[in-house]
Amino acid sequence: PLRYISKYSELVRREAEKNKSQWKTMGPAKVAVPSPNHFLQKHSKEPKLAPKKKEQEGEKLLPLSVPGRTYHPVIRIKKNFIYKNAVDVIRGKPKMPRHFCVDTRQGDKYLLEPSGLFPKYIRKKNYGVIPKYVTQRNEEMKRAEEEYQASVLEELKKKAMKTLSEEERTNVLKALKKNWEEINRAFQTLPIITDTRYKKMQKEELELKLQQLEHDIAAIEKHKNIYIANV
């Protein structure tokens, strides 16, 4: 067979040639040579001030005017800081002495209040009071426990056994006895000789039904309170 040649080979070749980097050539790159007329002149690199803007027409400086009668100059009053500091000290409250604790004979001391030895927290108004967030959390936990107990009781009530009333018990007993009479009548009409398999099966089935009905009738007559589970 002939060798497979892709129909896109020419397109791929043109794309590769088009996207080829310009600097991937042999030898140094061909750049324009600077002109000899553009040489470095004297003081060309020194910073220059911006040119002054010419006054446009209609934008002339206003002449100096005399202040009006309502003008009040700002009078700066010199303060006597020495006198002011003396008055503040005289009128101010005296500083309370700070409590120190000395633990060595060389006189090393440290402040007593931040050390934890000074009983400042027990003197607070809210000392020993349960915080609000703890009380709120305890109330939420108690409310959740009560809701859970209520849901459990509701679920138990739903699953609780139902008590059969006396009227329902009498009706069920009458229905069972009536059913027993019908099956007993069908059992009495069976032939005496059971020589076939079908007759034997029919007789055994009627006997089992009679036994079950007799057991249910005896249980209902024996027990006055009958409970029915909700399954």
TrEMBL record:
GO cellular component entries: acrosomal vesicle; axonemal microtubule
Keywords: Cell projection, Coiled coil, Cytoplasm, Cytoskeleton
Alphabetized InterPro entries for the sequence: Enkurin_dom (IPR027012), Enkurin_domain-protein (IPR052102)
Record GO terms (molecular function): calmodulin binding
Biased composition (Basic and acidic residues): 43-58
Signal peptide annotation: none
Residue ranges, annotated region (Disordered): 33-58
Keyword Coiled coil: yes
Cellular compartments annotated: Cell projection, Cilium; Cytoplasm, Cytoskeleton
Residue stretches making up the Enkurin domain: 136-228
Domain of life of the source: Eukaryota
Keyword flag Cytoplasm: yes
Coiled-coil stretches: 134-170, 203-230
Protein name, entry field: ENKUR protein
